Amino acid sequence: MSISGIKKVACIGAGTIGSSWATNSCMKGYPVVLYDISEPMLEKAKKNIKDNLDFLSECGVFNKEEVQAALDRVTLTTDMKALGDVQFIQENGPENYEIKQGILAQVDKVAPRDAIYASSTSGLLISEISKYSEYADRCVGAHPYNPPHLIPLVELAKGEKTKDEVLETACELYKAIGKEPVILKKEILGFIANRLQAALYREVIEIVNRGVCTVEDVDKACLFGPGLRYGILGPNLIWHLGGGEGGLKHLLDFIRPTIGLWYNDMSDAKDLPDGWSDKAMAGVLEEMKNRDKEFGNTSAEVARFRDQTLVELLRIHKKL
Ligand SMILES: NC(=O)c1ccc[n+]([C@@H]2O[C@H](COP(=O)([O-])OP(=O)(O)OC[C@H]3O[C@@H](n4cnc5c(N)ncnc54)[C@H](O)[C@@H]3O)[C@@H](O)[C@H]2O)c1
């Protein structure tokens, strides 16, 4: 199937990611069927999609007529047969092999044989998700970043049986709806970006648990230091600039002895420690309370601030 054959898409799972993907597809002109087993989740998703589009309208991205046209492209359903005439399916069910395998088995019965099946999995293997499917050749791992209707990255991974043309068409479709796909040369748990996030977070736990700093201090150090640069450049280019005329090689040769000392002192934990989630939650609630009012003191306010800032950044990167 080539991208010109994709006329209608489906999102399975109407939670955080499914409703955001549905927003992305309808705002880029695709009719979208949003399927979930839960009526209340579909109702919530309907409101999320409208809120997402209204927010983009407030930011001047769309006018009111465009918002209404986008909303009119969305069909909500608990009947999987509605996937009978779609050419692209984005699965956003729970992050669990058995559930994802079960969803795919149902899809195999109702969707057209050549419809592409893309899983939003945060880090499971598409080969494993599709291992019982007769049609594993049409399956691809397609990991978005939250919220997918704003964040451009989609990480694409082929499974053992995925056809090259499926990956190519998925890649084209994501570009057509404003995404920045990165194709993995081989599938790996956690894709690229979540492995990087997990590595960073392992050290967050280490330094807070060693009493070096608070949860709030970690966020401040990230946000006002490397985080500001990461919104502009990736870690390799950032360090390349730090190396002056000699560039990245010079910097790496220079810091090698020091970084070796750090590596030896850093965490190599294989799991989140017991009690960490309570400690982290308490830390983040304290942080939220201490924020300047104009940047938000509740999850909803902070999310709005994040999205407003994202829109500005996306405009700078010419992604909106
Ligand atoms: N939340 C994130 O930040 C994030 C980011 C990237 C990727 N992901 C991945 O996206 C997927 C969805 O995550 P989420 O955060 O949107 O989860 P969520 O819990 O918000 O939503 C999951 C939805 O799936 C529905 N569901 C459950 N069983 C189902 C079934 N058998 N058939 C159809 N729908 C079913 C639920 O009713 C719910 O609406 C996961 O694989 C997750 O790892 C999440």
- Termini separation: 28 Å
**CATH-defined architecture of the largest domain:** 3-Layer(aba) Sandwich
- Low-confidence segments, given as residue ranges, are none
Tally of helical segments: 13
Mean pLDDT, as a whole number? 97
Question: Mind explaining what this structure looks like?
Answer:
Pathway: Lipid metabolism; butanoate metabolism. This is 3-hydroxyacyl-CoA dehydrogenase. InterPro entries: 3-OHacyl-CoA_DH_CS, 3-OHacyl-CoA_DH_NAD-bd, 3HC_DH_C, 6-PGluconate_DH-like_C_sf, 6PGD_dom2, NAD(P)-bd_dom_sf. The protein is α/β, with parallel strands linked by helices and about 325 residues long. The protein folds into two domains: about 5-185, 3-Layer(aba) Sandwich (Rossmann fold); about 190-315, N-(1-d-carboxylethyl)-l-norvaline Dehydrogenase, domain 2, CATH 1.10.1040. About 50% of the residues lie in helices and about 10% in strands. It contains 13 helices and eight strands. The chain has an eight-stranded mixed beta sheet, sandwiched between helices. The radius of gyration is 21 Å and the shape is globular. About 25% of the residues are buried. Bound molecules: nicotinamide-adenine-dinucleotide. Nicotinamide-adenine-dinucleotide binds near residues 18, 41 and 122.
